[in-house]
């Protein structure tokens, strides 16, 4: 795939060539900061995906895979500078990351400037493969519309009134915009929207506004929460007894640590990206067993996403027969590959990975530390009409 020196070249040049022949991947992600737990899962998953897809060799056609980690600390300016460093100084073949949608949006123009592929995982905002997209961007992670459409299918219905609470940045605003659009297509609507700072810990004022907007409505009433990180809005608002107004809390899936709080919501429905017991396929079987053996825990939400990205990297380079950017883009557009969630496919129009989502109902088992999202229905690629937003 890369330049090979002729026989007789002096040893020091041969060593340099061998180093240059490595397949270099930058993982640019928020290794430290508020989403540290997400970041660790994403990196563990990426490495497991590379391992799985190469049969444990960590090589593609005899060339060693080298992963260079770069910590954005969840700051957009760091993400931009570190990706410039990775493409420019480190001369990586492609990059993966980041965790935060805000950081991702700062990184997208860098991929276009350097004409190098960036695989976005797990940042969610629709604008990443929508208004701010460019042809060097591919995303293995789900987008806000996939979250929104799947949750709308799970929650909407005749005479169902829904209010929303989300963080006031790209992830929250894009998520609610997509959810609102999906609800309209499902015959429901949003009666009230609340946006609060990402570090909010006191939800009293926002909750009171929601209660006032919904208390006199007839029919089913649900408060749908989109949240990442700490703060525990679900638990704190539940402590304010929304049931006195007939309001039920609803949300999508989350990491296992966060789903400990879901034990207070038996029977709650929503849609999730991944839960390790749901997908039934050989890739997920390998991930669950390997993760349990290696780390002593089941794989989590973002572990599966990281693994999907790692497998995509290997499959793309194999299909392209090269790490040349144009060859990779040609190979990846429309590419299908197997992941812990089953089949994914990069949609040619916006390079968004189309994938299944899972409608769940919460089951509480006293012997399990977290609430169990029991499968109601797998929502396949064909079940999810995900809009194309980059035109």
Automatic annotation (TrEMBL):
InterPro entries: BCAA_transport, Leu-bd, Peripla_BP_I. One of its GO terms (biological process) is amino acid transport. It holds the Pfam family Peripla_BP_6. Keywords: Amino-acid transport, Signal, Transport. Residues 23-363 form the Leucine-binding protein domain. Residues 1-21 form the signal peptide. Belongs to the leucine-binding protein family. This is Substrate-binding domain-containing protein.
């Amino acid at each position: 795939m890369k330049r090979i020196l002729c026989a007789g070249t002096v040893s020091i040049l041969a060593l340099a060539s061998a180093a240059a022949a490595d397949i270099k991947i930058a993982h640019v992600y928020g290794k430290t900061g508020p989403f540290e737990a997400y970041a660790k899962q994403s990196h563990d998953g990426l490495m497991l995906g590379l391992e799985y897809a190469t049969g444990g060799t960590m090589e593609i056609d005899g060339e060693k895979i080298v992963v260079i980690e770069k910590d954005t600390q969840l700051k957009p300016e760091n993400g931009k500078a570190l990706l410039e460093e990775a493409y420019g100084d480190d001369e990586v073949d492609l990059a993966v990351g980041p965790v935060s949608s805000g950081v991702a949006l700062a990184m997208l123009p860098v991929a276009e400037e350097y004409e190098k592929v960036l695989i976005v995982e797990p940042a969610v905002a629709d604008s990443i493969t929508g208004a701010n997209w460019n042809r060097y961007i591919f995303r293995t992670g789900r987008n806000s519309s996939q979250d929104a459409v799947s949750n709308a299918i799970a929650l909407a219905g005749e005479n169902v009134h829904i209010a929303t609470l989300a963080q006031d940045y790209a992830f929250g605003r894009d998520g609610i915009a997509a959810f609102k659009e999906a609800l309209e297509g499902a015959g429901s609507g949003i009666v009230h929207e609340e946006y609060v700072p990402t570090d909010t810990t006191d939800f009293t004022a926002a909750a009171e506004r929601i209660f006032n907007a919904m208390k006199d409505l007839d029919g089913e009433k649900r408060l749908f929460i989109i949240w990442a990180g700490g703060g525990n809005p679900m638990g704190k608002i539940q402590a304010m007894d929304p049931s006195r107004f007939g309001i039920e809390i609803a949300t999508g899936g989350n990491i296992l640590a966060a789903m400990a709080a879901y034990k207070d919501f038996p029977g709650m429905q929503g849609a999730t990206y991944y839960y390790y017991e749901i997908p039934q396929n050989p890739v997920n079987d390998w991930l669950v067993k390997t993760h349990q053996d290696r780390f002593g825990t089941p794989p989590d939400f973002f572990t599966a996403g990281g693994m999907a990205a790692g497998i995509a990297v290997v499959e793309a380079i194999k299909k392209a027969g090269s790490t040349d950017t144009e060859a990779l883009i040609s190979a990846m557009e429309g590419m299908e590959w197997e992941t812990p969630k089953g089949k994914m496919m990069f949609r040619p129009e916006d390079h968004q990975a189309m994938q299944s989502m899972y409608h769940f109902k919460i089951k509480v088992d006293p012997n399990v530390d977290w609430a169990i999202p029991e499968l109601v229905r797998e929502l396949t690629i064909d079940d999810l009409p995900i809009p194309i937003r980059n035109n």
